[in-house]
Design a protein that fits this description.
8 helices; four-stranded parallel β-sheet; alpha/beta; Dna Topoisomerase Vi A Subunit, Chain: A, domain 2; 6 strands; two-stranded antiparallel ribbon
């Protein structure tokens, strides 16, 4: 009977992105060996996220209240709005020291997946810019086909508003060797070059 319970946990864990059967099995047995309090606190954290998490009414970041802590922080530079695809992108960008505010699209354009501009939070972004005093929109969508298509669409949609629209640069990662870079990455590095 216990093996059925473990197998059920393994199956549930494999439904998570990036978790294969072997990793799920290791995690299941690790959870089984954990002190009761620790295991239950993980379960409670999952329940809390599912029960309390919602989208910020301003930027669509994840929050427990109506507005997220970033939108509520009056010390942030409200003249700069960084546009990202998902709330998880904010966590990464925050580690860079960016002090502006954000707007989460909740996806990227993908005609093949029927994700059109109407299904993203683009109109909400345009409305924010019209009513707020933003001077620059920094597009930080992923450097893939969907992200590039979304960036191009945003550039065109924002053009009539008369604000600066920029795109994050991308190319070679720090610590890598040029000889191992693919042509597209190297080309983007040349396009994103700047004076020193």
């Amino acid at each position: 009977m216990a093996l059925g319970i473990i197998e059920n946990l393994i199956q549930r864990l494999t439904s998570l992105p990036g978790i294969g059967r072997k990793t799920a099995q290791r995690l299941a047995f690790y959870i089984l060996a954990m002190p009761d309090g620790e295991a239950k606190s993980i379960a409670e954290a999952i329940n809390d996220v599912k029960d309390k998490a919602r989208f910020c009414s301003v930027c669509f970041n994840i929050t427990e209240s109506d507005t997220c802590s970033i939108c509520s922080d009056m010390e942030r530079d409200r003249k700069k709005i960084c546009v990202v695809e998902e709330p998880s992108n904010i966590l990464v960008i925050e580690r860079t020291g960016f002090k502006g505010i954000y707007h989460v699209l909740l996806g990227a354009l993908s005609p093949i997946d029927r994700i059109t501009p109407e299904k993203l939070k683009i109109e909400e972004l345009l409305s924010r810019i019209r009513t707020d005093s933003a001077e620059e929109v920094i597009i930080a969508t992923n450097p893939n086909t969907k992200g590039e298509m979304t960036a191009q669409y945003l550039k065109e949609a924002l053009a009539p508003l008369g604000i600066t629209v920029s795109r994050i640069a991308y190319g070679l990662p720090m610590g890598s060797d040029i000889e191992f870079a693919d042509e597209v990455t190297l080309k983007k590095s040349f396009e994103g070059r700047r004076n020193i």
